[in-house]
Specification:
Layout: H1 7-28, E1 45-50, E2 53-59, E3 68-73, E4 76-81, H2 89-92, E5 106-111, E6 116-126, E7 129-136
Antiparallel strand pairs: 1-2, 2-7, 3-4, 4-5, 6-7
């Protein structure tokens, strides 16, 4: 059984791959800018939709609720968090033999497939997973337009042009 080629599906996967590449290039390499975000890690996310609801889940291990900031504007979602200072070796008195876990800072800017209603957005954090629930903006939702039959007046004269009256 052969599968049908879907060019739009390949464009979406190309866009996702480019987005990941850009996130890794600029986030891990550091931007050298101000504001302390040059060591921020990219946050891996999953995104899915059900009806008019868009769900975004992000892995945020070791981050406390008060350290996370989630903002949205138009069709862009931004997830940021501070670094957990209480688990740095120099601040805990520990001498790590191997220290591979990172607990922030995190930064991720995600282009959403459509504009969302920021006022109805909800975010929860549980077991290191941030879940953001977004509703489509009213301008993005499909609305059924009722069709009415037009009752245009019909002229009483009949002629060879389908009943329309023509004056010369």
């Amino acid at each position: 059984m052969s599968s049908r080629w879907e060019p739009m599906e390949q464009l979406t996967s190309l866009r996702d791959a480019m987005s990941r590449l850009m996130d890794q290039s600029f986030t891990f390499a550091g931007r050298g800018g101000e504001g302390g975000s040059n060591n921020a890690q990219s946050v891996p996310v999953n995104m899915f939709e059900s009806g008019d609801i868009l769900m975004v889940t992000a892995m945020m291990p070791g981050v406390q609720e008060e350290d996370i900031e989630v903002t949205t504007r138009g069709n862009t979602l931004v997830i940021e968090s501070k670094e957990r200072g209480d688990i740095k070796p120099e601040e805990t008195g520990k001498r790590y033999i191997r220290h591979e876990f990172r607990y922030g800072p995190y930064h991720r800017m995600i282009e959403l497939p459509y504009a969302v209603d920021a006022g109805s957005a909800e975010a929860t954090l549980g077991d290191g997973i941030l879940t953001v629930r977004l509703s489509k903006a009213a301008t993005e939702r499909s609305h059924k337009i009722n069709l009415r039959t037009s009752t245009a007046p019909v002229s009483s004269g009949s002629s060879s042009n389908g009943g329309a009256s023509v004056r010369s």
